[in-house]
Amino acid sequence: MTTNEPTGRTPDSTTVLERFSLAGKVALVTGASRGLGRAMAQALGEAGASVAVTARGADGVRRAADELRARGIRAYGVRADVTDPADVDRMVGEVTRELGPVDVLVNNAGISVPGTALETSEESWREVLATNLDGVWRCSRAVGAGMVERGSGTIVNIGSMSAMIVNQPRWQPPYLASKAAVHQLTKALAAEWAPHGIRVNALAPGYFLTEASPVDQPEYQQWCVEPAAMKRYGLPDELGPAVVFLASDASSFMTGSVVVIDGGFTLF
Ligand code: NDP
């Protein structure tokens, strides 16, 4: 192979819209029982993928899978905790058996625990890092092994604009640290797996309205909405097209990128 030979590219005859298609692909989305994960699972399914959804709560997983099926999407729900190595191995095994080998992994499961550095306990620190960072590494490793063997695959990690800025006086240090590490882990995996035909990118969302949004706090508007150039928060379905782009051949020359999608929050 010469250094100029393009790899992972669709044939020249493919139209732009066809490059966004995920027909025949299997996608696995962690933390997909609600919020951004649920919206991204729907978008990947609408782009043609069979979609596996996972989270800790069995009811939420069942609901999310049923919702996808009701939209005509081939779906499978599997309960798993990304902090548990045995759960993650079981999850990947089950999805592979039910839908086929995973072509697209979206590492979305994440939590935050409110509090300043001095208020953060050892336990909270570990819990946030175990979910947001260790979980991304663990799922990437479990799915990546098969991708390396097959010589193809895409991974999209959900980071955050909070990896780059600190916009609240009481913002959560373990959350910020974990998301910054996810951005750098994205680049490390991208470099390691590019020779194997695997692309790894991250989305860095700004504020999106989900159950995790602190809308009940009096400062929410002042801290989370006003600073954005667009003066609003995002809606979960506004993240869907971006994940389809990064998961599909539409982004065939992108790896190790962190795509910020924040309504202009980090402009200032
Ligand atoms: P939600 O709290 O609404 O959803 C989180 C999802 O992750 C749920 O499905 C939850 O289900 C699952 N989850 C949590 N812990 C685990 C675990 N250990 N193992 C498996 N699944 C788990 O959050 P959002 O939708 O708002 O956020 C999704 C991602 O996007 C997170 O990584 C978050 O940090 C990131 N993000 C969100 C932003 C926002 O404004 N909303 C901004 C920037 C980034 P269950 O509890 O049943 O396990």
Automatic annotation (TrEMBL):
Record key words, sorted: Oxidoreductase
Ketoreductase domain mapped to chain residues: 25-206
Keyword check for Oxidoreductase: yes
Listed SMART domains: PKS_KR
One of the record's GO molecular function terms: oxidoreductase activity, acting on the CH-OH group of donors, NAD or NADP as acceptor
GO biological process, one term: carbohydrate metabolic process
Keyword field contains RNA-binding: no
Protein name per its UniProtKB record: NAD(P)-dependent dehydrogenase (Short-subunit alcohol dehydrogenase family)
Source organism of the structure: Actinopolymorpha rutila
Lineage per the UniProt record: Bacteria, Bacillati, Actinomycetota, Actinomycetes, Propionibacteriales
